[in-house]
């Protein structure tokens, strides 16, 4: 199964909303890829920004898959990739 950039962003927003106890609509996220840092995201919540590393993104996708698709997946089953946009492949 592959989820595309919009869903990966949703995963990050829902995950951070749960962690910070705010509604998901108050979270903004921007994904990026850097040669040195790999996959990262900058997240804005109530006017404050925070950077997430790839491990945080994998955790967000893991939780999103469980809560929205009722599928228990582990980080080792998730692979982030980049073509024109960032996506996540989830192995069965």
Widest β-sheet, arrangement of strands = 1-6-5
> Secondary-structure element sequence?
EHEEEHEE
Count of discrete alpha- or pi-helical segments spanning 4 or more residues: 2
What would you call the structural class?
A: alpha+beta
Number of domains in the coordinates? 1
Major β-sheet profile:
3 strands, antiparallel
Quote the beta fraction. Answer: 35-45%
Distance between the termini: 8 Å
What gross morphology would you assign?
Answer: globular
> Which regions contain 5 or more consecutive residues with pLDDT less than 50?
none
| Overall pLDDT metric | 95
Q: State the oligomer.
A: single chain
Helix content: 25-40%
Rg from alpha-carbon coordinates: 12 Å
Overall number of strands = 6
Task: Explain what this protein looks like in three dimensions.
This is YxcD family protein. The protein has one domain. By secondary structure, it is an alpha+beta fold. Helix 1 packs across helix 2. It starts with a strand and ends with a strand. The protein has a 3-stranded antiparallel β-sheet. The longest helix is centred in the first third of the chain and has 16 residues.
Features:
2 helices; 92 residues; globular; 6 strands
Summarize the structure.
The protein has 92 residues and is of the alpha+beta class.
Secondary-structure map:
Layout: E1 2-3, H1 5-20, E2 27-34, E3 38-45, E4 48-52, H2 54-69, E5 78-82, E6 86-90
Antiparallel strand pairs: 1-6, 2-3, 3-4, 5-6
Helix pairs in contact: 1-2
Organism: Paenibacillus sabuli
Pfam families: DUF2653
Protein name: YxcD family protein
């Amino acid at each position: 199964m592959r989820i595309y950039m919009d869903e990966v962003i949703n995963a990050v927003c829902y995950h951070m909303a749960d962690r910070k106890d705010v509604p998901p609509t108050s979270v903004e996220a921007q994904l990026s890829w850097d040669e040195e840092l790999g996959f990262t995201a900058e997240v804005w919540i109530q006017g404050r920004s925070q950077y997430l590393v790839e491990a945080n993104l994998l955790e967000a996708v893991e939780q999103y898959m469980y809560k929205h698709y009722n599928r228990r997946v582990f980080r080792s089953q998730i692979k982030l990739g980049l073509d024109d946009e960032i996506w996540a492949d989830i192995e069965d």
